[in-house]
Amino acid sequence: MSLPLFSFIFAMWVLIIIGGGLMVVFIGPLSFSGDGQLDPLINSGVKVLIAMILIFIWVLTLLKIKNWIFRKIVNS
Amino acid sequence: MEQLIIPAIIAIAVAFFSVYGLTPFVIRALEKRNITVVDVNKKQKTMVARPGGLSIIVGMELSLIILYIFFPISEILAVILTTFFAFIVGIIDDKKTMGGWFKPVALAFCSAPILLLGAYDSNLAFPLFGTVQIPLLYMALVVFMIPIMGNTINSIDVLNGVASGFITIASFALSACLFIIQNYEVGIICLCLAFSSLAFYKYHKFPSKIFPGDSGAITFGVAYGGIAIIGGVEVISAIAILPAIINSFLFLSSVKKIVEHREIKNPVTHTDDWKLQSTSEKHAPITLVRLLIAKKPLTEKQIGYEIFKLGIFSGILAIITAFMMGVNI
N or C: which end of chain A has fewer CB within 10 A? Predict the structure, then answer.
């Protein structure tokens, strides 16, 4: 049994649930009112940008966890 | 619910028995024409028939066409077409090794039936917190998800039986999730995939008599991705294949570019007793298999079982997530 890998999968699962919560609670209700017809486009664009930043943070966190797990496996 | 039982039994039986019955003929036909490859992880030089995508696509398409006759809904048609187009992309890649970007781009076009038939719901559902409406972003998600799923399953097709065994576990877990959230029609479609891959596993398991090739592995992955989209279970489906996602993630984070997997250095070597061990090659990519054997060398069969254990663990997490879908904080 590769315990560190099970921990990695569990960590990914927790990050997915937290990330989903952030999407629904904070990003979903965001609304930017501005120039008439452009509103839906601006709203979607800003939400995409925030989602991309969140994914970037998610990947960075996973990279840190992966490096820690790989070091742990190699050192054991 | 009762009216679904008989069509479901017929479609599932067709999915299983057509792949189970057709694959030996495909193996013989490929061997007769010398369309075989060396199984690199065997001590004796063993030639194995490849690709076995034909029997997989026949099983999948026949079962889905039967379901479509009973329930003519656009969701089933979308999966039929998307999976078929993905199989064509896979066959092209089997015949002629294409560049690293060919598959992702070609598979992105395969998502067209889902978009054109409107076989999706632009609400993205998350456990505990509810849904978020992202109409424009969701269309982009569909275009990205099909190639990602296809390539993710293709990238885990590295050892005897792993791709078919892993997708069997994941699709049974996803079927259970779809039944939990009471999406019965799509749950039955997913069972067709599960039984097709289970039948193929009989011939693909260690020691393999046939390899799925790109056409088989991509068909599995794209069918799985298509089912996830039409069933509105994108997050759950990703959780069920987390070990395969980890494999792609490790690979991309170490290689740092999209390349055809045949172009890169093999991350594993063999011991004297023909177990697999991690290579000392500095530039070889980190993969799930390499992590599993980093501590000590394992046999091909042992590694396969370790990956299946990870798959079962992810499947359980996916089922827990499906139960969490009904709970709102």
Answer: N
Task: Note whether residue B91 is domain-resident.
Answer: yes
**Over residues A47-51, mean pLDDT:** 79
- Contact call for residues B137 and A47 (beta carbons, < 8 A): yes
Give the pLDDT band of residue B258 (cuts 50, 70, 90).
low
Looking at the domain assignment, is residue B275 inside a domain? no
Residue B49, classed as helix, strand or coil, is: strand
Domain count, chain B: 1
* C-alpha to C-alpha distance for A34 and A71, rounded to whole angstroms: 50
How far apart (Å, rounded) are the C-alpha atoms in residues A29 and A32? 10
B288 part of a folded domain: no
| Contact (CB<8Å) B126/A20 | yes
Tell me which chain B residues have a C-beta less than 8 angstroms from the C-beta of A62. Answer: 249
pTM for this predicted structure? 0.92
Q: Is B313 on the interface with A (CB under 8 A)?
A: yes
Host domain of residue B21? 2-255+302-325
Q: What is the pLDDT of residue A70?
A: 72
Q: Confirm or reject contact between B274 and chain A (CB < 8 A).
A: no
Q: Between B136, B243, B324, which is nearest A9 by CB?
A: B243
Give the model's confidence band at A36: pLDDT under 50 very low, under 70 low, under 90 confident, else very high.
Answer: low
Chain-chain contact of B134 with A44 (C-beta, under 8 angstroms):
yes
Beta-carbon contacts of residue B208 (< 8 Å; ≥ 6 apart)? B39, B48, B160, B161
Strand partners, B36: B49
| pLDDT band per the 50, 70, 90 thresholds, residue A66 | confident
Q: Are A44 and B134 in contact (CB under 8 A)?
A: yes
Q: Where are the alpha helices (DSSP H) in chain B?
A: 2-32, 53-70, 74-95, 102-110, 112-116, 135-155, 162-180, 184-204, 213-230, 234-240, 242-255, 288-292, 300-325
Question: Residue B131's pLDDT is what?
Answer: 85
B310/A16 CB distance under 8 A: no
B78 in Cβ contact with B226 (< 8 Å): yes
